[in-house]
Write a structure and sequence with these properties.
With 134 residues, the chain is α+β, with helices and mostly antiparallel strands. It has one domain (24-126). 31% of the residues lie in helices and 29% in strands. The chain has helices at residues 2-19, 55-64, 70-76, 121-126, and strands spanning 29-38, 66-67, 82-90, 93-100, 104-108, 114-118. It has a six-stranded antiparallel beta sheet, with helices on both faces. The protein is globular. The termini are far apart.
Amino acid sequence: MKHALAVLAVVLMSMALAACQAVRTPGRISVTSLSLIVDATDAAHGMCRSFALSRDDVSTFFRVATEIGGPEFHDRAVILPCRYEGTLTLGGEAWRFSINAGGAGYLYKADGTQRRYLCEQRCHKGLARAFGAN
């Protein structure tokens, strides 16, 4: 009986630890449109000159950024006056996307599905040029 409880405890702990791991976006990503949006009325809009994303950068962002839930995303996301918006296909499905210069990203489907991403550590290293880092 003690052995069975120990095994059950190990299994439950393994499941709990797996749930804490960052979720990555799997599948092939193909960017079909891309445009820069700048809020010129925001005093900080000058920083947008160094923010440049290519279609490959968008694909990289959604492959390496961390998917974050609503409340945590709201607390941690930095929203700046410029973003790239467009459309992409992921795993054969059409999505709209938005990637803000502060490293916050969104995927939206027509059915209302929404995913939120933050570009952290590994993501920033892979996209340093795109986000204006030298």
